[in-house]
Specification:
28% of the residues lie in helices and 11% in strands. With 120 residues, the chain is α+β, with helices and mostly antiparallel strands. It has one domain (3-56, 74-119). A 3-stranded antiparallel β-sheet has the order 1-3-2. The longest helix has 14 residues, at 20-33.
Length: 120
């Protein structure tokens, strides 16, 4: 599956942010092309990678039998609502590896001469 960053994906639409109107426009374009992003471009970290997959087609066996008159018709709201919670996964710090600290770090920094040397 080809991937690209969310930032690059947004640039295809000439935008830098994921506001409500922008997301609606992008979703409409994706729906017309019958594709979706994985993970969802709206909730992924801006510099993380997303891929494209085909949207799930409607299974004909699960479709209502409208022609024979044996079907009930329901209106389904397919509007996607954005999550109002700002997720930790959207922060840069949550998407970088932590620095490694050696097991004897406490002993090293407890010595005043080493602490001065470490600060430069």
């Amino acid at each position: 599956m080809p991937t690209l960053s969310v930032r690059d994906f947004l640039s295809w639409f000439g935008v830098q942010r994921r506001g409500g109107g922008i997301v609606a426009k992008i979703r409409d374009t994706l729906n017309k092309a019958e594709v979706r992003t994985e993970p969802d471009f709206e909730s992924a970290y801006i510099d993380s990678s997303i891929g494209f997959i085909l949207a799930s087609p409607v299974n004909e066996k699960e479709s209502p039998d409208v022609e024979s008159g044996n079907a009930e018709v329901f209106s389904v709201n397919t509007t996607s609502y954005s999550d109002p919670t700002y997720r930790i996964s959207k922060l840069e710090a949550a998407n970088i590896s932590p620095a490694a600290i050696p097991p004897d770090a406490e002993r090293f920094f407890s010595n005043p001469s080493n602490a001065k040397r470490a600060r430069g």
